[in-house]
Amino acid sequence: MRTEMIIIQHKISALRQLRQIRRSVPSATLQMLVVTLVHSRLDYGNGVLVGLLAYLMRRLQSVLNAAARLIYRLSTRDHITDALTSLHWLRVPERMQYELAVLAYRVLRGDAPHYLGPLVRVDDLPGRRTLRSTNINRLVVPPVRLSTVGSRAFVVAVPHI
Questions:
Q1: pTM (predicted TM-score)
Q2: For residue 55, what are the domain limits?
Q3: Are residues 84 and 32 in the same domain?
Q4: Is the torsion defined by CA of 99, 118, 107, 128 positive or negative?
Q5: What is the distance between the alpha carbons of residues 132 and 153, in angstroms, rounded to a whole number?
Q6: For residue range 95-134, what is the model confidence (pLDDT) as tens digits?
Q7: What whole-number distance in Å separates Cα of residue 150 and Cα of residue 87?
Q8: Are both 122 and 73 inside the same structural domain?
Q9: d(Cα 4, Cα 52) in Å, to the nearest integer?
Q10: In terms of domains, do 62 and 31 share one?
Q11: Are 53 and 23 a contacting pair, CB within 8 Å?
Q12: How far is the C-alpha of 32 from the C-alpha of 39, rounded, in Å?
């Protein structure tokens, strides 16, 4: 819990620093800075932030919304959906799912770091060779209680996504 709060605070401080210089830089430069400093930090911790509590997810979404408002110079009363759409940004839960799905795809293809390979297992029982699940690389979900921290682990979260 403490780690997630520290990550969120770093993202908020980066936005505050960018807000101070927004009038002195062109809008294209501001967008590049926001994407580099804030947007990339949102993607950086996705593996840790899977299964995040709802109130922390809302805080991360508010950081993303504030970044879009900063780029387009919108007020807090303006709708943010159009800004997120025009920037081609997903909302925070969808971003986390997308990042983990891409990582799982890379693990199955062999492009991911080698230490992630043993964490993702494909359902390949010998008697099931003719089933379609072996052809589509259905992943094995290890048994864990969903109320525990173990349900947030990479090995459990990836097959669910």
A1: 0.72
A2: 2-89
A3: yes
A4: negative
A5: 27
A6: 888 888 888 888 888 888 888 878 777 766 555 555 554 4
A7: 34
A8: no
A9: 8
A10: yes
A11: no
A12: 10
